[in-house]
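ERR on first pass: missing label on line 2. Operator R.T. fixed the label and resubmitted. Corrected input:
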Amino acid sequence: MKSIFTILFFVAMTTFFYGVACPQNADNSSNDLDIDLDLDFDIEEVEKKPYSINADIELEEAIRFLDSDALLFKQKYLDTKKSDTFWQTDINFTIEGQYEWDKIKLYGRFNSLIYYNKDVSWESERKAEEAYITFQPSVSLAVDAGKKVHKWGKGYAFSPSAFFARPKDIDDPDATLEGYNSLSADYIKSMEGVIKTFAITPILMPVTRHINDELGLENELIWGAKFYFFTFDTDIDLMFQVSKNLNNQIGIDFSKNLNPSFEIHGEAALVKDNTKYIIDEFGNTSEQEDTAFNFLLGLRYLSEMETTYILEYYHNGEGYTADEYENYLEFIERGYNQYLNTSSMASISKSKKYASSYNQQAAMRDYIYLKISQKDPFDILYFTPAIIFIYNIDDQSASITPQLTYSPITNLTLDLKAGFLLGNSKTEYAEKINNAKIVFSMKYYF
Amino acid sequence: MKKIIIIALLSLFYLMAVPSITAFALDGNKILKQVDRNLNPESFEMYRKLINIEPDGTKKEFVMFSIKKGKNKIASIFLSPASEKGRSTLRIGENMWLYIPNVGRPLRITSLQSVTGGVFNNSDIMRVDYSAEYNCEKIETTKKGHTLYLKAKIKNVAYETVNMFIDSEKLLPHKIECYAASGMLIKNLYFKNIKDFGDGVVRPAIIETDSPLYKGYKSYIVFAKVKKRELADEIFSLNYMNKIDGLR
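pass 2 clean. output:
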């Protein structure tokens, strides 16, 4: 099976590079084009129907180069697996549809993932990412009920003020997220004066055994709101989240263009009574309760050569210090040695209880994110090479991801990226399960 | 003798001064405002097809529904192709945003970027009134029509100077040259196929563009169903960007 995927993978890669390197006789420049322009424009898209359906299918092949010396590898596999490459094939199908009737709109987006790897063979997952009803009595007011994504904040890679959303994947910040069940509204008011636009977005998010149960609470009502102001050519949001058992949070964000090619943005959030679960190198555990302060400062810059730079500094006040993280890794190392010497898995099992905190993305305090992308280089239209750096300031470990994206024909996107993790021993990125990965994907929209 | 000399000098001065006095008498900014109104009503909706053509003839097409209000507010939503469907853009004066359904929130973009790729940048696609961005510094009149020499009066513009060649009878542009602050020609826009869209809207139905920066590439905007429409200010806000399709 693996050899079939190897062949498929290299055929796909060859096609990708051929398409990029030979963009259909790009040097054949003729200005005398025979163009048949549709002046009457009576095309399908103009005639609105009450319903619409769209879908996309994505085939992804990922190779992960496992690092058997890494401590998180040892934590997960002990000595049951040797350093190897790990192949996974994903077939991802998403369908979205909407139906409009007068002031009411029904919307749904559903995802089905089928994947194969040699550990689990074929598996599948299905989920409704969004499914909600909108009632819009006027242009100023809309009410949404159902499963909906509420993405707040201005950060590209990190969003400390996205209180009602699932965390972003730093490796793919633009990826679609799954929503939560909620009741929300949007009220917009345009004005003359210093504040040009004001909007308020209140949200009620109930938690029961059957609704939003992944939040781990029972019969809880989480509520909050976002207040938006457009003033002095600047977007400003103030937001808060209140609940009985979750941490209460308040936040602010802004974004502004300083000139046509330079944008700045920022976010800050205070998380009240944040509890940090700590385990030291001997396995002693403790809880630290404090008000955490998270913030982000970022910029986007577009150069004359059409190179885009996205730079963000993120301070995660809820994160672990370099010493705390190193202690956790040392405890895993002790646990692994204990297992080798005595076959006891007690310490490794104990460390796994803390994995959801320590092993999550951006688990430490201070990060720098930099993405540099070049639009249409070498006169190849719809081709965007990019490189992404994520640097952990606290332990000087890093992730580097070169990426090539190409859309050779309408509705088809090819994407090839390779990720490399760097750092000294007992640092966040150096101790991840794999030390490199290559991911190739083809996505077709219809 | 003195009288003869004075009369001769005055006559000479008059003969030299007449062309410039005529040109000076024309108010370039007034003409520019009229060109804006002739290109589109103050508040209106339209459909546009953007066509990017590569040197080998490969075409990529985008269809958008757009609404504009006042001098400097415009919002659009992509209707096709499927990969772009649901993306919307908003411009209020010098501020531009892009909403991508997958991303789920508006992002600020700049006038020099291009949401579609190709020769047209965001400033061309989200065009507001020229008089909202430019002052006419000089006007020249020939048999072919007027040439307005425009200079940016705000900082966030894609082109520092613009030369607009207009038909003096119809007061519609037939060519626009766009220059960077360095004086480099960035692109030419050609306005073609004047069409009666009804309700007094008569304007070019096609804008063609080429650029010395994209040799062999061409892009077109084809206009359809341009019609007057009253629009609330609230439509031109970030919170409304994912609801623009509901206005069709």
